[in-house]
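Need the bound structure for calcium ion, inputs here:
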Amino acid sequence: MRIRTTAPAVLAAAALSVSLLAASPASAATARHQGGLHLGTIQYDSPGRDTRSNSSLNAEWVNIHNSSRSAIQLKGYKLKDDTGYTYTFGSYKIGAGKTVKVRTGKGSDASGVRYWGRSNYVWNNTGDKARLIKPSGSQLDSCKWTRQGSGSISCH
Ligand SMILES: [Ca+2]
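Answer from helper R.:
Posting the output first, comments after.
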């Protein structure tokens, strides 16, 4: 369905999607995200050769964006690859409209960046799926790629 950008059309589309969601709760449960916290750009292929140096590992990363109007405490949120490797957030508050980058290698956590602390890559260059999971275990968002392409993907 194409959504036009004029305000009445947006309102009509919103009303339509609400009625669609109400009509089919199963599709609501599998929606990729609900406009709050979601996966942003993923640099799954670290630029240059995959030497496993820490700087190369850290050039592999996932952005998580908070497009809601409130800060969100990420403690207990999980980022998983398709194999099941899991990064679990410690206490970290992401502000409204802010992005946090999860880098694969080792480093000192700082504002806007978290380090997974791995000594090998996590995101497969030729295809993988990232999942963002709430502390309750329910999936908030996912993003997959099926080829190497440019080495990164903009999930939204
Ligand atoms: Ca990679």
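Comments: The longest strand covers residues 37-43. The CA atoms of residues 45 and 151 lie 5 Å apart.
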